[in-house]
Amino acid sequence: MLKTIFLVALTLAIAIGGGAASVWYVLNLQNGVGAVTIGDWTAFPDLGTPDTDPYSKARVAREGILTLGRAEGLAFVAENDSSGAELRRGCSYTVQGTVPPSRFWTIHAADEGMNVINGLKQRAPALHSYEMLREQDNSVSIAVSRTPAPGNWLAVDGTGKMFLILTLYDTTIASSTGVADVKLPRIIKVGCNA
Amino acid sequence: MLRLLYALLLGLVGAGIVHIAVLLLLPMISQNDAWSRLAASSDLYKITRLDAESGVTPVVRSVDPLFDAAACRFDLSDGVLKVTANGHAPFWSVSVYNRAGENIYSFNDHTLPDGGIDFIVLTSTQLVELRKEMPEGLDKSIYVESPDEQGIVVVRGFVPDKSWEKQVVDFLGGISCAPEQQQ
After folding, report:
1. What is the pTM of this model?
2. Side-chain half-sphere of A158: how many Cα atoms within 13 Å?
3. How do residues A86-145 score in pLDDT, each as one tens digit?
4. CA angle A113–A117–A120, rounded 5-degree value
5. How many angstroms from the chain centroid is the CA of residue B175?
6. Chain A residues near residue B153 by CB distance under 8 angstroms
7. Most buried among A18, A75, A146, A184, using CB within 10 Å?
8. ipTM score of the complex?
């Protein structure tokens, strides 16, 4: 008798606990269903549209996000640098390369909860393409660090994990064609100050 | 032993069913979606700033720190929605979301010839009604057909630096989001 109760309880615990935990796990994955990965960056072009998959729908409902529309732009999120190591707020990085055609783009850093990191209050928390210093071949090189750097400097502070978010506005790649064919800048680790 | 194995197997199958059920029910029961969050802070047709103004936690997380955004909720059972705004921002864009917070239509400042916002959200039934007799002043607007009666309009304005802040805030503050009176 007791054995039967135990087995029923075990079955229910696995079913409810396992079912709920697996949904929670999948929805928290940065690289979840519907993601398009280009180099170090990940985007969800279909997130928040009516013709997306159930996982993206659940994510939109749970997080209460209002995603950018196709005519507005597309956001790319980076979690790792080009060597595959997690991005840390205590480290210095160089974001280097060219950005696909768009009217303009912005880049900013976010903490684990995807809140904007405002490194220095006197500086804007993000950089945009209109204020970029460019190389001769039109590529850009952005220093992301806690300490000031010459050229384009995105100031961060604090410790722990961070994300870099590159948002392209009014871009042709946000339409259904060719999201996978574009090239995005690489994130190279310069060093860590632990 | 065999019964334990059977219980484990049954538990795993059950977990699969619960996984699917939770996933499909989440959008319907979520109290945390954009509509509910907006409803908690403001009424229908009221323009609400989405970005954090001086330390207030943002209503809906606005992704880009260089953007200011404003939203209003609408219900088309009150009549067709007309949204207008005049002003200038370096870049602005508009998105129309359905009740579930899914983007059904978007456009930006290059879409309209004179740079101002002027569009109408309506259901397909209302569109048929409206086409029978086009009222004055609506003939130049963009028409957005909404599958649901309820939804959210979001206007985003780009603020390249602090000097643009006031102009973009004025632009967003000047948005009119109201149901068009029907005859």
Report:
1. 0.85
2. 15
3. 999 989 999 999 998 889 999 999 888 778 888 777 788 899 999 899 988 889 999 999
4. 160
5. 14
6. none
7. A75
8. 0.82
- Whether chain B has a CB inside 8 Å of the CB on A20: the answer is yes
Q: B154 to chain A: which residues are within 8 Å by CB?
A: 66
* Inter-chain residue contact B26 with A62, CB threshold 8 Å: yes
Tokens of B118: 């002027």
Instruction: State the DSSP string of A59-124.
Output: HHHHHT--PPPTTTEEEEEE-B-TTSPBPBTTEEEEEEE---S-SEEEEEEE-TTSPBP---TTS-
Q: How many CB pairs under 8 A join A and B?
A: 185
Instruction: State whether residue A183 sits within 8 Å of chain B by CB.
Output: no
Q: Is the distance from CB of A191 to CB of A107 less than 8 angstroms?
A: no
Contacts with A114 from chain B: Cβ below 8 Å = 61
Asked whether the beta carbons of residue A23 and residue B23 sit closer than 8 angstroms, the reply is yes
> By C-alpha distance, which of B104, B26, B18 is closest to A66?
B104
Note down pLDDT in tens along chain B; length 183 residues.
788 899 999 999 999 999 999 989 988 888 888 888 888 888 888 888 876 554 445 566 666 888 888 889 999 888 889 898 887 888 889 999 988 888 899 888 887 777 678 888 989 888 888 888 777 767 778 888 888 889 999 999 999 888 888 898 899 888 998 888 654
Q: Is A148 exposed, middle or buried (0-12, 13-18, 19+ CB in 10 A)?
A: exposed
Answer whether B8 sits within 8 Å of A8, measured CB to CB.
Answer: no
> Which contiguous run of DSSP H or E holds residue A155?
strand A152-155
Q: Tell me which residue in A7, A71, A104 faces B4 most closely, judged by beta carbons.
A: A7
* A18·B15 Cβ contact <8 A: yes
The reply to whether A170 touches chain B by the CB within 8 Å rule is yes
* Structural contact between residues A99 and A168, judged by C-beta atoms closer than 8 angstroms: yes
